[in-house]
Amino acid sequence: MEVSVIVLLLLAFVAANLPFMTRRVAGIWQVANKHFGWQLLELVALYLLLGVLAQLLEGRHSPVHVQKWQFYITTLALFLVFAFPGFIGRYFWKKRGI
After folding, report:
1. Confidence at 97, pLDDT banded by 50, 70, 90
2. Are 5 and 72 in contact (CB under 8 A)?
């Protein structure tokens, strides 16, 4: 496995958990209570950003292969699995009254 693939997977794991780790929307705007809709929007934006990065990395090594919808559904499911620890930490392990 190449180093760029390992780095991309590590980046995907961090990016998938990022929306649940902070109360800032897009890392910029501080809000008192960040709704799940904002977190879902951030997840989609980070998934698309990582997809563009992966396509750029693939283009540096070989011709970019055309993918069908099954590939994108599978990678989205993997991205959501990566987001599971952040989701659990945000919604199930938080202390009451905070």
Report:
1. low
2. no
